[in-house]
Amino acid sequence: MTKLITTIDEMKNITKALHDQHRSIGFIPTMGALHDGHLKMMSLSAKENDVTIISIFVNPLQFGPHEDLDSYPRDIKSDTLKADSVGVDYIFHPTEKEMYPELPTIEVKAGRLASVLEGAERPGHFDGVVTVVNKLFNIVRPSTAYFGKKDAQQLAIVKKMVEDFNHSVEIKGVDIVREADGLAKSSRNIYLTDDERLEAVHLYKSLCLAQSLYVQGERNSAKIIAATHAYLEQYTSGTIETVAIYSYPELIEQHVIDGSIFISLAVKFSKARLIDNIIIEA
């Protein structure tokens, strides 16, 4: 039975006891509204570790002033049932006051990796991510932490943070889980209207088009981006905010593709901003 933990002290006492018993800890940080993408990571953790812990915390530091912090979906009862169904042992579910008794005095900055793509569109977002992930790693002290590849930039930043700050945790990226029609599963998909939901499938289809051009030998980023952008304009009514090709995980913009890349896009619908990507290994 999954146990709900709400205080830092209790969570730290539990993880200290687990470390004393030399038990491995798998950890998945989330903001709740759990979907199949989250559950895939939890199932994997349950298979690979002695104990699986998730956090459910809607982190205010990673939301901008006009983003959906207040309306972000929250349903701890449903999330607990879902987590229990895939073998999660503990849910760390602190209040905002518990995590941030006061605004942090010492700031953690994500740096250059956060200056592009989502970081450029959402200033301060990744600073909030690395701040909360640092706190969670220090509280839970996991052996392995799992992050979805849908947020590929976040995954790259967290891996670099772990390297730079010498955290004793292995970071595993988990493949995107998609609906049957290809739409990447996301907590924000519930904000789509019926018509937008039908259009949203074309985000993935546009990425498949971009990948097919790459497979056919195209290495000029501008041509791949133009074709992807044109496809999205034709098949969606959303505002196309980003179509970009960057090296991965270095996150350096590619004009002539060389090495591993990820093709990233972001489209803003009426109440939902959706992101998606495809990572292509060298």
Automatic annotation (TrEMBL):
Residue positions binding beta-alanine: Q62
Transmembrane segments: none
Subunit structure, interactors included: Homodimer.
Gene Ontology molecular function, alphabetical: ATP binding; pantoate-beta-alanine ligase activity
Extra remark beyond the main annotation: The reaction proceeds by a bi uni uni bi ping pong mechanism.
Stored NCBIfam families: panC
InterPro entries, per the entry: Pantoate_ligase, Pantoate_ligase_C, Rossmann-like_a/b/a_fold
Entry function: Catalyzes the condensation of pantoate with beta-alanine in an ATP-dependent reaction via a pantoyl-adenylate intermediate.
Documented EC number(s): 6.3.2.1
Species of provenance: Staphylococcus edaphicus
Protein name per Swiss-Prot or TrEMBL: Pantothenate synthetase
Keyword Protein biosynthesis: no
Active site: H38 (proton donor)
Domain of life: Bacteria
Family: Belongs to the pantothenate synthetase family.
GO CC term, one of those recorded: cytosol
Reactions catalysed: (R)-pantoate + beta-alanine + ATP = (R)-pantothenate + AMP + diphosphate + H(+)
Binding site for ATP: 31-38, 148-151, 177, 185-188
Ligand binding ((R)-pantoate): Q62, Q154
A Pfam family the protein falls into: Pantoate_ligase
